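Known limitations

Files may contain more than one protein. Parsers should not assume a single record per file. Below, a two-record file is shown to illustrate correct handling: read the sequence, read the token line, then continue until end of file.
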Amino acid sequence: MSSISDITTSYVNTGSASISTEELGKDEFLQLLITKLQYQDPLNPMNDEDFIAQIAQFSSLEQMQNIAEAVNESNSLTYLQMQSLNNVMSAGFVGKDVQAVYDRVYVDADNAPRIAYTLSSYAGSVEFEISDESGDVVATIREEDLTAGRHTFTWDGKDDFGNRVPEGQYTIQAVATDASGATFNPDLLLTGTVEAVIYRDGVAYLKVDGIEILLGDITAIGEKGAFDSDG
């Protein structure tokens, strides 16, 4: 008589219902073993060696499932602990100035967003395109003769026609051109003061100049005005 392992990728007819065995847990495995014992040929019953092998297989399956459950529980606890630690740490950022990798700025009724970027080498010029939420370019800003390193500039929140843009989030794209005419992309950074910490779905976001930033996107932190003299 064939063993249980021979039928773990088929369908087993128990006499009353068919059971899918493509993915067996310990309960399904035990049910199959009991069913097999019930419907075995009385003239050719399972021998002791086969029965012991099936029990051993069931025991191994149960142990592996218990280990998997313990690992999943441990991972969940670790995640919750790290999440709680991040939430506690985030509260300490309020009132601090931070720098984060980001490509968006928020414009309200009267603010003037600072845009920070880092050049890996000298650039004869850097052109910035600022687009609204629909993807339309509203402003183009050009800076020239820039050394390698970190730079900042202030956008007055106006479009190319001198009109104040509507309140909302705007996306920044930057292309730099070096001395030979080759182009490359600067690293865009957001700098500003952390106004508040927002918790959503157990995750902490830092609100900086109206934009919510994940803690993992922060690259530097300092006291108020720490980055004002850069660039």
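...continuing to the second record:
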Amino acid sequence: MRIIAGKYRGRKLKSPPSLRTRPTSDRLRETLFNILAPRIEGARFLDLCAGTGAVGIEAISRGAAHVTFVEQSRKMCSLIDANVEALKIGDERIELFTADALEFLRRRLKKTTQPFDLVFFDPPYTGDYESVLDYLGRQRELLADEVVVVVEHHKRRDLAEAFGQLRRYRVVKQGDSTLSFFSV
């Protein structure tokens, strides 16, 4: 895996030790960030179910002001930390949480924090998408007014058109993966 563009362009990232984690491919990340390009500069980015951290690190590389990584696996959090350290990304620009996605969102809502401008949600393809998306769509305090929530899922998995106030406005398919874009 490598960083596609921006400040860290071409730099390689450490990969997961096993195939249990399915990192977002370079090609799909490039497609994602080509679509999000006008919104990245200065954005507060949430990489939910972050895996290797490649998507959030790509966001930092392209000018995001802050990235919050959330990953349930301690091993993968160590990998994210190693990738961030190797690139010498300042601690003030990132947060890393070892937590389940829904648990993190519930705890975050109880704190006074700035809302996220962009959310990338990529759970295991067999994971629970609906409860997290439903929570995000009903807890608007977590999301900026012009938020974009992007969900990566298998092409055969159908997601609802709406979750609370979130409405799907775009779908991009590439190989076995699909990106569904939601906004308020």
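Parsers that stop after the first record will miss the second one. For reference, the second record is described as follows. The chain has one domain: 26-183.
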